[in-house]
Design a protein that fits this description.
Helix content is 81%, strand content 0%. It has 179 residues and is mainly alpha-helical.
């Protein structure tokens, strides 16, 4: 019947939004997601998809409004808080850490949330410890492995550049000071 058609159209709009987003068409994705959220105004996932799309356009104000609407509709879904944290981070909203913490309260074993929490840590040692803990439980978690590699290689690169700067200073100093 007509309700089945509306449901199929809603799913099709969400799929089109996700596909457009994955191929770099954030503006098209935003249009599809806006239509999906308009067709189902009480669907939290539709509003979070809209927020995700708008955060990549970027339309910060509209993205945050869609994020807030999604969380008004559903406040017990850890995955929704993960998406909210990512949107907030992209938009420069300071609530990203709060969203991660709320998501972890709802699902402490969520590896994606644990990875986001570890990646947000300021000091490399804390970040490595958090990401390593995720990888102990889920060794194939791609995002945690990638973040850990970035952290380790970034630290090595900073150390190596420090050594080169020191070596250059010694060479310049020895050339300048008479023997």
């Amino acid at each position: 019947g007509p309700l089945a058609v509306v449901g199929v159209v809603f799913v099709a709009l969400q799929v089109l939004a996700r596909v457009s987003l994955s191929v770099g068409g954030a503006a098209d994705a935003g249009r599809y997601a806006r239509r999906a959220a308009g067709a189902h105004p009480h669907d939290a996932d539709a509003h979070m998809l809209l927020a995700t799309c708008l955060s990549q356009v970027p339309d910060r104000r509209a993205a945050m409004a869609a994020l807030d609407r999604a969380l008004e509709l559903e406040s017990r879904d850890a995955e929704l808080f993960l998406a909210a944290a990512r949107v907030a981070r992209r938009c420069g909203d300071g609530r990203a850490a709060q969203f991660i913490a709320t998501g972890l309260d709802l699902d402490p074993s969520n590896a994606d949330l644990q990875t986001e929490a570890a990646s947000a840590r300021t000091f490399a040692g804390e970040r490595v410890a958090g990401l390593s803990a995720v990888l102990v439980d889920e060794p194939t978690h791609d995002a945690a492995r990638h973040s850990l590699a970035q952290t380790v290689w970034g630290t090595i690169a900073r150390l190596a550049s420090g050594v080169w700067i020191y070596a250059l200073a010694v060479v310049l100093f020895s050339a300048w000071v008479p023997s």
